[in-house]
Design a protein that fits this description.
- Helices cover about 40% and strands about 25% of the residues.
- The strands form 3 sheets. A 5-stranded mixed β-sheet has the order 3-2-1-4-8, with helices on both faces. Strands 11-10-9-12-13 form a 5-stranded mixed β-sheet, sandwiched between helices. It has a 3-stranded antiparallel β-sheet with strand order 5-6-7, with helices on one face.
- β1 and β2 form a beta hairpin.
- It comes from Paractinoplanes pyxinae.
Length: about 300
């Protein structure tokens, strides 16, 4: 009987869920709303119900579920399987791993959503073949994962990789984190759309609207986009000084801009560095399945350690 892992990537709006084979291929995928407004216990209940349903689906398909991998946003204590803090889904010190193991009777692993996405991209996606990989997800916010030899680095408190909160414009725009001038306040998809909407009087404008309009000769859109690129490049110069990686893999919603993001960002980065070796700039290869695949890989790693 073929083994599979039950994998869930839990976000503030929705859950991406899958049965993943040990080689990273997805056997079955489904999506469910998170409905975080119901409170943390209800969200955890949905996670447990969906995971149980996926395990049953695996058995119905003559597959053997051997482990469960869960990815959540926020600060994650991976060693103890606790979601320490996540404002998006209302979790605070929630023992997710223990509850999963109790309900399903399977070994489980809990990881940070961007970090497990980085593990997947490093092993199977845009960073494949490189030992030192930095995965940066640019969406509503900005977060990153340092992956060395296929292993994600979580830091002493589970909060490593918060590149979005490198201050690139001291005293600048307010960031939701409480600081001013964070890279996220200038270079995230939310920040780009908001900045253009305010300046152009275009309510509801998105970052991808800005990219499109910049490409069509809209000077205001081009200015907003250039300022975002410059802020991202400034933050990445600091990141490279700290991490010295072979490859930078860019994912998240803003990566949909493709070469309109990668080319000017790499160019701006190279203009800023002096003695540092520049990494290759590549687009993420696994799309929005990276979180599920990475959660599955984390669960398989956990299973191996138990053996």
């Amino acid at each position: 009987m073929t083994n599979v892992v039950v994998a869930l990537d839990v976000g503030g709006t929705g859950m991406k869920c899958a049965l993943v084979r040990p080689d990273g291929t997805v056997h079955h995928a489904e999506r469910h709303p998170t409905r975080a407004e119901r409170g943390p216990e209800a969200v955890l209940g949905t996670i447990l119900d969906v995971a149980e349903g996926l395990a049953a689906k695996a058995r119905a398909d003559s597959l053997e579920p051997v482990a469960v991998g869960i990815a959540v946003p926020g600060v994650v204590d991976e060693q103890n399987g606790i979601a320490a803090w996540s404002s998006n889904i209302g979790f605070r010190d929630v023992p997710v791993r223990a509850r999963i193991e109790e309900r399903l009777g399977l070994p489980a692993a809990l990881g940070h959503d961007v970090r497990v996405g980085g593990i997947a991209e490093a092993r199977l996606g845009g960073g494949r073949g490189h030992r030192h990989v930095l995965f940066m997800a640019i969406g509503t916010g900005i977060a990153a994962a340092l992956v060395v030899g296929g292993e994600g680095y979580s830091g002493a408190h589970g909060a490593a990789g918060e590149l979005g909160h490198i201050v690139v414009r001291p005293g600048g725009e307010a960031c939701p984190c409480g600081q001013r001038g964070c890279m996220e306040a200038y270079g995230s998809a939310r920040a780009v759309g908001k900045r253009y909407a305010e300046l152009a009087g275009a309510p509801g404008a998105t970052a991808l609207d800005v990219v499109t309009r910049a490409g069509q000769g809209d000077h205001l859109a081009a200015t907003v986009w250039r300022e975002a690129i410059e802020a991202l490049a400034d933050g990445l110069v600091t990141a490279q000084a700290l991490y010295d990686v072979d490859v930078l893999v860019i994912g998240g919603g803003l990566a949909e801009a493709g070469d309109a993001l990668l080319h000017p960002l790499e160019s701006a980065f190279r203009e800023r560095i002096t003695f540092h070796r520049p990494p290759a700039f590549v687009r993420a290869g696994l799309g929005d399945e990276a979180g599920c695949i990475g959660a599955a890989l984390l669960a398989l790693d956990h299973l191996e350690k138990l053996a």
